[in-house]
Amino acid sequence: MTSPRALLTAWNIRAKKQLGQNFLNDPNMARAIVDKAGIDDDDVVLEIGPGLGAITVPAAAAARRVIAVDKDGRITGLLATELLAAGIDNVDVREADILRVDLASISDEAGQPLVVLGNLPYNISSQVIVQLIHARSGIDRAVLMLQREMAQRICAGPGSKEYGRLSVMLGYCAQPRMLMQVRASLFFPAPKVDSTVVGIRFADPPVFPAHDERLLFRVVKAAFGKRRKTLRNALSQSDLDLDPPTCERLLESARIDPMRRAESLSVSGFVRLSNIIGTHRQSLETCG
């Protein structure tokens, strides 16, 4: 397809900084991203933020169907027109805010789990990743281009400064890994930082399944909500309705030192802790 600069000029469109619009300007990189996703002609692809179609075109050549969702109506109109002119007829371009889209309904419509592709703006990337986690029963795998900092966060392990709530949530149900780096100069307009392509394959079931997944994610949020505090203090000062002595007892029951901090606890440790807390809550309900 035509270069981003030429297309935007021809359509009299300016990239919107508030939407994180930095358009990939390297067809070789776009093809490499599609190759990393391992797309074949049986796959249905959901592309988040297709922009001007750099990744859309090679994805459409590989997949049975592509559903491309973009919030900007100026861009969806341009993209649909360019795809039509190129004779590409297996792409469904939709104007929508991905954060308001029911991903389960798209998977149901496709009749199979989706392959998700996306060049995610930094300001919504964490929200989209959480959305994918909750909708993962309808998603087989995802290949996402993220700002390097975000990629480091979601792929981080215990003990690192990047390890946090997203690291645990995603590590609970998936195997994220960094696939390749993308220089800022390969985009138009060029962002201030480089990007990283991350591959995510969801595990079904998780390696360490929680008895109550919603409670697990609440425990993780509480633990990292005050990450400079010990687990005992962070949990007792959260909305989990646990006093300090109870937190200490439950942590010890889970074989976790109450003086440890959240960033030192593995995914399996968080699962073990949430299961213990869940049992405690059930016992209170039974007694009540």
UniProtKB/TrEMBL annotation:
Subcellular locations according to the entry: Cytoplasm
Catalytic activities: adenosine(1518)/adenosine(1519) in 16S rRNA + 4 S-adenosyl-L-methionine = N(6)-dimethyladenosine(1518)/N(6)-dimethyladenosine(1519) in 16S rRNA + 4 S-adenosyl-L-homocysteine + 4 H(+)
Domain Ribosomal RNA adenine methylase transferase N-terminal: 29-204
Gene Ontology cellular-component annotations: cytosol
Primary localization class, coarse: cytoplasm
Role: Specifically dimethylates two adjacent adenosines (A1518 and A1519) in the loop of a conserved hairpin near the 3'-end of 16S rRNA in the 30S particle. May play a critical role in biogenesis of 30S subunits.
Record family assignment: Belongs to the class I-like SAM-binding methyltransferase superfamily. rRNA adenine N(6)-methyltransferase family. RsmA subfamily.
Protein name (Swiss-Prot/TrEMBL): Ribosomal RNA small subunit methyltransferase A
Organism encoding this protein: Desulfosarcina alkanivorans
Gene: rsmA
